[in-house]
Amino acid sequence: MDKSKDFAQHLSPALLNNLLVVACAILLKETVNLNKLKNQVGLLLGKRQIKTDSHYKRLTRFFNDKTAQHKLWKWLIIWLLDYIKGWDGRSRSIYLTLDGTSWQLGTHQIHLLTLCLVYRGVSLLLLWRDLGKKGHSSQQERKRLLQQAMKLYPLRGFCLLADREYEGKEWFKFLTDNKINFIIRLPKTVYKADISTGGKAYSALLKRALRGRTVSQWFELEGYRYQFVALCHQDGPQSADPLVLLVSNLDWPKQTIAERYRIRWTTECFFKHLKSNGFDLEELGFESPRKIRLLVAIVVVLYVICVAEGLRQFHRIRAKKKSQYEPLRLRESIFRKGYSVVVNELISIAHFVDWLLAQLTKHLKVPIRLFFFNVQY
To answer: Where would you find the membrane-spanning parts of this chain (predicted)?
Structure first.
């Protein structure tokens, strides 16, 4: 604890100790289910003689603690953003993704609306909100999330990528007014008349796109100019959803806009790591929004620490690339590579803290630039 004072000077020793126990147990068991984590606490603390029920009560007391619920999650996220800002910035991406993931937990609906920064092909969660409902987020809910994020991280000049459920006139206006660029996929049925006023008819543009052309057209929407881009889906015109329709406030070439939108897929990989391929987030047993918020904050910090180690070990990850003209494909994800490094240091909590504090002071510099534009939709 003494070694961690500078790192976590605002946390009480008891709270920090319990945080470390929870985090290390999650890493070892690859789940957030407290019933499964309780079996690991005795091994971590060297107290095997104590009954697992006592360890379970310790875990529940931590998540019931008012300071942990109201302050600890904020400290974790602020620390995390400061940590990311210190990474090697020479090739830092300017891309953000907005997406959501939802699942049912008993009678409670969990719907995490997430804002991620894409750094060298990996999505890093900046901020999120549990909307606690089924269906899509509203424009107002998205605005609130971005307003909170802009207070914590410099988003001006970044490019936001989002799927078709994140469209809306007021939403486009909000992003443009706040100097945030965007490339957002559109449903086929929206803004037909507005797009047609830009020159060619909407139907004519779609016909050309179905023939394999990438087409674009500028149009006005409530006094703001946007670029409409249409192209055929990679599965061809006979697929169930043959067209990819995009809107952007950027004046980039249409091929560049279509290519950069593919980066959005990195967030799907992020969700996979939080769930089935990493921390089994859907196994959480809380319905309390504050407890869920704290647990997600802990998991996100662990995820980013694993990603950092994976980036440091990037030169050890074997590639599937067959020729110099094909995009880089890895045999192992950066997160899983980093996870294997981190979990290998969990000999004891004391050893893990020594190692972690040493790693956090090292400058993160990746020896190779990652190419991630040529990915599938």
So the answer is: 292-311
